[in-house]
Amino acid sequence: MIVTINGKASELDEPLTILALLESKEIAPRAVVVERNGDIVPGEQFDDVRLEDGDHLEVLRFVGGG
Amino acid sequence: MSKDILTIGGRTFSSRLFTGTGKYGDDSVIPDVCEASGSEVITVALRRVDLESTTGNVMDFIPKHMQLLPNTSGARTADEAVRIARLARAMGCGDWIKIEVISDNRYLLPDGYETVKATEILAKEGFVVLPYVNADLYVAKALVDAGAAAVMPLGAPIGTNRGLKTREMVRILIEEIDLPIVVDAGIGRPSEACEAMEMGADAVLVNTAIATAVDPVMMARAFGRAVSAGREAFLSGPGAKRVLASASSPLTGFLGGAEA
Lengths: 66, 260
Hints:
The complex is a heterodimer.
Chain A: E1 2-5, E2 8-11, H1 18-24, E3 33-36, E4 39-41, E5 56-64
Parallel strand pairs in A: 1-5
Antiparallel strand pairs in A: 1-2, 3-4, 3-5
Chain B: E1 6-8, E2 11-13, E3 17-19, H1 30-37, E4 41-48, E5 67-70, H2 78-90, E6 96-99, H3 112-124, E7 128-133, H4 137-146, E8 152-153, H5 167-176, E9 182-184, H6 190-199, E10 203-206, H7 208-211, H8 216-236
Parallel strand pairs in B: 3-4, 3-10, 4-5, 6-7, 7-8, 9-10
Antiparallel strand pairs in B: 1-2
Helix pairs in contact in B: 1-8, 2-3, 3-4, 6-8
């Protein structure tokens, strides 16, 4: 299945949860916010929401800014 | 002097210097900058995670007692600013948001119309909204009606270190707008921050001038002192300006003169 993450298409072998996806990329779940198909996914649901073919994800975090 | 407290969004602050986290050569200096400046409010931006390489997290360097002020940089419309604000709130670090809506890439000047629209939507959703705007009285009045918690007029374009170029317009906002006025952007030297505070600004936000100094910690301390000095000067009620000289020493009893 193909999932678009931060504007880039990625091929996933299995339907991962958001938490599993973050862990596979070594991203701390508490440090990010995730938007799936335009809707914010609350952090406590990262382990429940399973990605589907064609999903668009935005994974964001705080960075330095003024 | 009784304790001089700044209140925004129901939270009180004893420091009137807001700082940022952008442009540091090394983010590990940020805790020392915060301590030296005395600042209690600090800005961050929200950006996509680089999935290919994990880098340091700026949040690790922000003291926990500080009020986080995420900005909506990157937004070109009110809708984009609202989207970024909601995502920032979902990070779980509070509901403050600095609205920044910019579609001018050359001078990074804020779009007042879109900013007012975003402020209205977000204030209704319970955000503490601090909009970054031109020093324009009508935009500021519209922000008051829209539910802003403060108004943040620019001193000069972002990152220019050019100082308080908008001073006359900022002065009008201070006089006419019944919300905290936080001069944001362009302040390059402590003397300029001091001047804004002497004029009666409620606070200043300084990022570039501190972050790009050779010694950011020393510059942060200098800004903290300048802001305090300017605030005290404002509260002290400065004497009137005159055209002609007015002697500070008595004009009688000179040595060697004839007494009347």
